Amino acid sequence: MTTLVAAMTDPSYAGMVIVIAGYPRDMDVMLNRNAGLKSRFKRFIDFPDWEAEDGVAFLRAKALKEEMTLEPGAEVMLLKTFEELKKLDGFGNGRDAVGMWDELKQCRAQRVFTVAEMVRTITAVDAAIAGESILAARRPPDGPILSQSSILHPSDGLCRPREQHAEVRPSLCELSEDQESETHLQAEQMVGNEEALEADEQVVEVEAARDEEPVGNGNIANEERDIGVSDEDWEELQRAKEDHAAHVDGLRRAREQAKLEEERRRVEAIQAKIRQICPCPAGYSWYKCGTGWRCGGGSHFVSDAQLNNQFTC
Known about the structure:
Pfam families: AAA_lid_6. GO terms for molecular function: ATP binding; ATP hydrolysis activity. InterPro entries: AAA_lid_6 (IPR041627), CbxX/CfxQ (IPR000641), CbxX/CfxQ_RuBisCO_ESX (IPR050773). The chain is mainly α. It contains eleven helices and seven strands. It has a three-stranded antiparallel β-sheet with strand order 5-6-7. The chain has a two-stranded parallel sheet with strand order 1-2. α4 (about 70-85) runs parallel beside α6, α5 (about 95-110) packs across α6 (about 125-140) and α9 (about 195-210) packs antiparallel against α10 (about 230-275). Mean pLDDT is about 75; it is low at about 145-170, about 175-190, about 190-195 and about 210-220.
């Protein structure tokens, strides 16, 4: 800072415009380090942070430019992610949006590695997993600060596992628990193919469980402490195991949330089609009853046959 002040008072730099940029709090700390520095800057320009909707709009434009389809359910998950990012320190606006896009493409690449898709699509599952990863990396870690000796021991030349994110925060799925409960009720009332739908859900759960099974994980509860391991190293290892378990659980919940979001959209589509056939004057929701659907007030009924004759559900 002293060098900068000296240069600003040097006649050889007369007429030069000096621009410095950074986060408001960091800039204030830097300028206050030298009493004569802040007074020499005559104009300050504040750029407002992006809103969560701005981040989603940016990703929507990126998807369009790279000829990808962004599912509506994916946009919902991305909006929640940006809302959570804005609550954390150091929100990077466009930089964070670019990082989110890179994470989305990586999640999609892992998903389509074995199963190709006709249209390049960013799904709600991709968005949920990418959001969990971004938020987990941004949240401050918990636990004591480790000494350098606990990270690397010259005697054995081996690096200890790096401490990751020990604090288990609410995931994107937990932010909408009320919505999940409502979606569960609606999914149970969907017209036709209930048994087939249940079978599909079981297949998804089995595949998700297979994806989440860590390679060589074994039974963590039965892993006993080796002889000679210090208390500090053992505690660090236990935190790493807890971090891993929390990460796996977050992925599972993200998949479940994406699946429920898809079912909610399907139910809403059916409800809209029923209202075209028989609008309920009171605006009640429709519920699956026997061979058809009945409005919440009970006085209006649409049969499955009527629904199938007029629409393909």
